Amino acid sequence: MDKVTPKDRFQTNRDRAAPLLAKLKSEGISHLIGGKSVPSSMGQTFETASPVDGSVLATVARGNAEDIDRAAAAAAAAFKSWRDMPAAARKKLLHRVADAIEDNADDIAVLECIDTGQAHRFMAKAAIRAAENFRFFADKCAEARDGLNTPSEEHWNISTRVPIGPVGVITPWNTPFMLSTWKIAPALAAGCTVVHKPAEWSPVTADLLARLAKQAGLPDGVLNTVHGMGEEAGKALTEHPAIKAIGFVGESATGSAIMAQGAPTLKRVHFELGGKNPVIVFDDADLDRALDAVVFMIYSLNGERCTSSSRLLVQQGIADKFIERLTARVKALKVGHPLDPATEIGPLIHERHLAKVCSYFDVARNDGATIAVGGKPHDGPGGGHYVQPTLVTGATAKMRVAQEEVFGPFLTVIPFKGEKDAIEIANDVQYGLTGYVWTGDMGRALRVADALEAGMIWLNSENVRHLPTPFGGMKSSGIGRDGGDYSFEFYMETKHVSLARGTHKIQKLGLPSS
Ligand code: NAD
After folding, report:
1. What is the CATH number of domain 278-459?
2. Which tens digits make up the pLDDT trace of 59-112?
3. Is 306 an active-site residue?
4. Homologous superfamily, domain 12-273+477-496
5. 370-381: per-residue pLDDT in tens?
6. Nearest to residue 97, comparing CAs of 126, 137, 125?
7. Any idea where the domains of the chain sit in the sequence?
8. Which position among 272, 344, 405, 462 bears the catalytic label?
9. How many whole angstroms from 179 Cα to the centroid of ligand 1?
């Protein structure tokens, strides 16, 4: 039998994408409101283009406050029956959504590549992980309402949880399909109905998710999707009185805006925001494994990853040698077409994002750091928004390239002397999402983990998501945690119920005076 070459697989991916893209172009993308595909009330649209070559992929409905109002009304109308559906039935439906995602995983993968520029080697697994999100929370439907029994002498005190109501989910453009299921699956498992506003730069697979969920039998109005701009549709969603909570993933500045927009309606918010995450490599670490993880955690997913380790803190004694090896690896990274299985870095999502990432080349130089690798746009297939993977050395902790989230394949290296120094530099940023520590000394690993101001720490490991664990950040990186039961804490209200055990004494007021 002939061996399947990477070239064959590239062609297979293209062949799979071609009819899907043709259909997308001819049909366009509508909102899904109350189970119906609908245009915007004012008929407005916008175009979504591929970062590979700038070609228009689809005309997309551009939602406004009226469309959000229709979607919120649909979510509110569906809420009571979804809330009261027996957990076993809800579980079955969510498993059917997972089945549908799995059945369409290859289509989702190629569409996500073309819509976002992410390399197929990563997107191939993204849909499978999205299905796992649905399965994990499907299996938790029954325990969502669990509470505590905290009896006192005179009362049985029981707590239970009830879904908060219709909720809004607002998502960004990086790995959009997988990320939106992180938010939507627990909300649905909790018994909430959802209005989803996906990012305007990546509407394609959000539309697919809504349609797959409908085909899988999710009742009308349980998941509604309204496309459009953040300042229009997104803002209206955060302000809508029928929407009880907003699960948001995106930039820290947008999180602040949403908090202000949601204040008049006392919106509950859950924020997963930006990061400038440190990976700290001590001289006693397994340096081969550390190097693999350092490269993977900033140059995978185009560096457009909130948990990327965008600052490498390396101990002085090993810095030169480690940077030399790192330089060789960064130079060898394969930038290319996202559907090519050999590609490690695809084009960035949008020309505006490319311009932002490229602006940091001058920032680095002006700050006095050295661009050791990269530092230019890349002329890639299709002529899209490609950038050279970039390595900045000779940086210090206060430089902008050590402080600001670039959100691209851009790594800043900062040497440190010892443990105390490393912790100080690591914490000296506004963000606090993740931290990665590489050392052979387990006592030190735990000490540093304890001292790092970040919501998630990996010791001698890259980021490996385990769904029951808490996911979220400190400081400007977020509010709240996702994952396992933590998600239910957000999407549900805890209710206290107290039952008198007997005839305890009740103060008698208003008795006739004797
Ligand atoms: P963004 O904040 O620009 O947009 C995110 C979403 O918010 C989009 O759907 C957008 O339309 C919407 N939006 C924008 N303004 C709004 C407003 N005023 N009201 C309501 N909605 C509004 O973020 P982005 O550029 O799409 O995504 C990149 C950012 O997301 C990075 O900072 C990254 O670190 C962060 N991110 C964080 C996590 C995490 O788990 N912490 C995960 C992924 C991405």
Report:
1. 3.40.309.10
2. 999 999 999 999 999 999 999 999 999 999 999 999 999 999 999 999 999 999
3. yes
4. Aldehyde Dehydrogenase; Chain A, domain 1 (3.40.605.10)
5. 999 999 999 999
6. 137
7. 12-273+477-496, 278-459
8. 272
9. 11
